Amino acid sequence: MQHTPFDLQLLNACAAILLLLSFAMLAQRRIVALVNLLALQGAMLFIATMLLAWRTGQNHLYVSAALTLGLKVIALPWLLHVLIKRLNVQWDSEPLLNVPGTMLIGLVTVVFSFGLAQPIAELASTATRNSLGIAVAVILLAFITMITRRKAMSQVVGFLSMENGLFFGAMSATYGMPMIVEFGVALDVLVAMLVLGVFFFQIREQFDSLDLHNLESLKEDQ
Amino acid sequence: MEFAVLLLTPLLGALLLAVWGARPRAAEINIALSFGTFLAAVAVTVRVINEGNLTAAHEQFFLDPFNVFLVTLTAFVGLTTSIFSRPYMRIEMEHGRLSHGRLRLYHSMYQLFMTMMLVALTTNNMGLLWVALEAATLSTVLLVTLYRTPASLEAGWKYFILCGVGIAQALFGTILLYFAAEKVLGAEGVSALLWTHLAAVKGELEPTVLGLAFAFLLVGYGTKVGLAPLHNWLPDAHAEGPTPVSAVLSGLLLNVAIYAVVRCKILVEGALQSTLPSKILMIFGLLSVVLSALFLWRQRDIKRLFAYSSIEHMGIIAFAFGMGGAVANFAALLHMTVHSLTKSAIFFTVGHAAQKAGSQRIEDIRGLLSLNPTIGWGLMLGSLAILGFPPFGVFASEFLILTTAMKQEPWATPILLLALGVAFAAIFSRVQSMVLGHSTGKRLPHQPALLPVFAHLALVLLLGLYIPPYLADWYRAAASMIVGN
Fold this sequence. Notes:
Low-confidence stretches of chain A: none
Helix content of chain B: over 70%
Order of helices and strands of chain A: HHHHHHH
Low-confidence stretches of chain B: none
Helix content of chain A: over 70%
Number of domains of chain A: 1
Number of strands of chain B: 2
Distance between the termini of chain B: 31 Å
Largest interface: A-B, 48 and 51 residues
Structural class of chain B: mainly alpha
Strand content of chain B: under 5%
Largest sheet of chain A: none
Strand order of the largest sheet of chain B: 1-2
Number of strands of chain A: 0
Mean pLDDT of chain B: 90
Mean pLDDT of chain A: 84
Strand content of chain A: under 5%
Oligomer: heterodimer
Radius of gyration of chain B: 21 Å
């Protein structure tokens, strides 16, 4: 068997931790911890991007890494922590599915993702193509996190985790998107979070809670 | 030059209106800015007609027959909606539903929304297209929740999260597209996401990757179009926001989203060398038409009623683009135009009708014809137009779509006809009860601006009776471009 270079092993380790963090998010019910896991996921993404930038010598990846560090490790978690403190949401209510059940679905999802990513990974010429399956798994796990939660805040964390998966996917398949697109996407995410901040206060003002049960009155036949 | 004016006028306008705030004449500034954008759009259009396709800013932006006609349409409806919204928003203020701060938010976001739609339409970069569409959503989320009622917050949340998740799928699709393009065009140049470059090499793009990419892109942008079963956010967002926002969401944003789908379809079909993407688009379109026709019967809210009608028409357009061929594409483009004009005109009248009755419930709105004949007739004529009554333009485009369907996809014609019939009965019976009968409404404190309504309806009538030759040429050029030969 061919010996894998050390930096590539490190990259693969980052990818594996990314996936583990997704599982941890699936099980975590404390919202503060959920945000910390998200920040940790951002940090893994940052390390992976730096390693890849160093390995391939592509300068735009350094910019991308800086963007990840600034936005996903520092700005967004900080914003979410401020919101959590101001809105005083600590725990998510009981999820729609119990933790073992969600984990089982998560496992099936990972197998499915690797199957889905297989044909693309074979075509890819990047060193990181094996991580593509992990990227798809992170996206789908984040999706499951979103649909099994009831608190608006947890859904948003799931949404951002999905975003992390997308970035990781772009990186492992093509060494990142063109710079102008990455800037645009980052800007959109930042604006989305600001809009959400405003939005949360509006919901709170109206319902005294961020529980999404309150948001189920618009039915089709109303 | 004209092009820079086109994009910068609304962008700087958004900043100006954010600073200007609640000082008097904000609504007039909004109209003036929209008028400036419209003039720039006309100038750009004239240039494209005279000189052919344009590119700008290192090919990041481009104009061809397909998008330039949507640019003009967008700028035009943007202008008329701003004219309509001036008295409408003043009445809302007097009814105590809005504060000065929220009016500032409305004006500023309105211009930002226009900017983002124009960027989405004119950009050559598939990544920027994604960014602009997402930004257009974000700029309208806070407009949907402008009244801060529980229902509007729920609608806004649904809009945000469903479109957010949907559009995340589209981003993954874009990544896959880039992945395939990079192999052919190379990653060093920035050209790997430029649509014109992609279209030039579409035959060489890896089919497996593009097939997968199309699935994600269709789900992502299809959520924005409101194609069933991804349409859940649409009726809520249209019904709970202020009426000018409903008018531009329905008349313009849906068009922009379907534009994105068609752009992707052209690339994928070229790569796959099969009609599978078209077939999928047709099925989604047909499903939307049938489902929305059934849901129309259950609506008690007038704005939800017409929101479902928008889903139906988007379904028809998607179906027509799916059939492909020069005639079907021509009809789809015509239908995009007439739907956009008619639906926004209907929302204008519906907005004032609801203000008069003090409620959006259909059973509370009565006797519009005797109460205010202009609003009553506007709603009546608009509804007849959208239902495909001859001689309005919707009849012409639906007729073309149906006859093409008989030739190309005979199995779909009865389904389509039946759904159109069901939708007709549902909308007609409800509109009839609203315009006839004893009036219950009150006088409005300001004179409503109904000029836009009749300007739109006159244009739709004109398009039904006679399409000017240069306009027809233009549609034909766009239609043949979409066919891809």
